[in-house]
């Protein structure tokens, strides 16, 4: 028997589900694309180029929204873009130091759990009770991943955790400050901000590759055009066809697909403790969205 859809569910649910699942698959593939690109490019130059290219391409699809962006909207979008740039720098540094993509993807997903905590700290919001159950589960999962190496947190793990915290803060700033900014215009500004803020210092501290091999260039373009621009366009359309809570639940699949993709592409394996850590973090994601899950399956919260 199929579950009864919650009241107020928009039409086109199947199309939305398929688009959002495809989005999570492309996002997972993006981890592979980026990791492969880093074999021939310095991390900061790569991330700056990736988002500069993606932002310029996305701008071509967003000209009406960009024209509607006023000065205040631009200023607030640049603030969010600066946070996004900081988060992506931490993320790519984590990826460059990481030896296990599956583990890294679950650490990065901890930002979802931290969103309501930051909302409480910085904006005075009252997070749901499920937040306080999810947070210790996520921390326990991170501890398990650290214990796998003898209770020594790897540098890449710290970078991914830092990125998760910055993205949690960015989500809150995004929700409270740029509510009236067209989403495509905001995304273009965010992407271009990464290129503008990251590329100049990257060129000062990193060495531009003397030769660009075809595979590395291909991975860069795949990261920019598929894992960034196309992913965003599909995600935006999918989210427009369903409720935000339903979309968020499907997006939780990204670390699962990433772990499976890394196991297939890089032949990664996980120890029992790593599996336990990833399982606890995923459980924390489910708990943090428990009210939405109950609503999805006809429960009352």
Automatic annotation (TrEMBL):
Entries under InterPro entries matching the protein: Diverse_Substrate_Transporter, EamA_dom, EmrE-like
A Gene Ontology term for the protein's cellular component: plasma membrane
Spans through the membrane: 16-33, 45-66, 78-98, 104-123, 130-149, 155-173, 185-204, 216-234, 246-267, 273-292
Main location: membrane
Record's bilayer topology term: Multi-pass membrane protein
Domain EamA: 16-146, 156-288
UniProt entry keywords in alphabetical sequence: Cell membrane, Membrane, Transmembrane, Transmembrane helix
Pfam families reported for this sequence: EamA
Residue ranges of coiled coil: none
Intracellular or extracellular location(s): Cell membrane
SUPFAM superfamilies: Multidrug resistance efflux transporter EmrE
Source species, domain of life: Bacteria
PANTHER family named among the record's database cross-references: EAMA DOMAIN-CONTAINING PROTEIN (PTHR42920:SF5), OS03G0707200 PROTEIN-RELATED (PTHR42920)
Official protein name in the record: EamA domain-containing protein
Species whose genome carries this gene: Thauera aminoaromatica S2
């Amino acid at each position: 028997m199929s579950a009864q859809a919650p009241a107020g569910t928009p039409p086109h649910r199947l199309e939305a589900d398929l688009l959002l699942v495809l989005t999570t698959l492309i996002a997972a593939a993006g981890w592979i694309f980026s990791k492969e690109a880093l074999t021939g490019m310095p991390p900061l130059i790569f991330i700056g180029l990736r988002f500069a290219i993606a932002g310029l391409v996305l701008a071509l699809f967003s000209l009406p929204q960009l024209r509607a962006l006023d000065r205040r909207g631009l200023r607030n979008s640049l603030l969010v873009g600066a946070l996004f740039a900081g988060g992506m720098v931490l993320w790519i540094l984590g990826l460059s130091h990481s030896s296990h993509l599956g583990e890294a993807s679950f650490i990065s997903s901890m930002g979802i759990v931290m969103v309501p905590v930051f909302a409480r700290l910085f904006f005075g919001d009252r997070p749901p009770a499920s937040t306080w159950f999810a947070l210790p589960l996520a921390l326990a999962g991170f501890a398990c991943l650290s214990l796998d190496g003898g209770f020594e947190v790897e540098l890449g793990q710290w970078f991914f955790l830092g990125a998760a915290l910055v993205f949690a803060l960015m989500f809150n700033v995004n929700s409270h400050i740029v509510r009236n900014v067209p989403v495509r215009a905001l995304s273009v500004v965010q992407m271009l901000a990464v290129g503008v803020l990251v590329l100049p210092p990257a060129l000062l501290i990193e060495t531009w590759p003397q030769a660009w091999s075809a595979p590395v260039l291909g991975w860069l373009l795949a990261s920019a055009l598929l894992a960034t621009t196309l992913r965003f366009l599909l995600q935006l359309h999918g989210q427009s066809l369903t409720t935000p809570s339903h979309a968020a639940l499907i997006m939780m699949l990204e670390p699962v697909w990433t772990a499976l993709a890394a196991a297939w592409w890089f032949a990664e394996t996980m120890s029992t403790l790593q599996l336990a850590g990833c399982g606890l973090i995923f459980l924390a994601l489910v708990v943090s969205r428990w009210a939405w899950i109950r609503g999805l399956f006809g429960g009352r919260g």
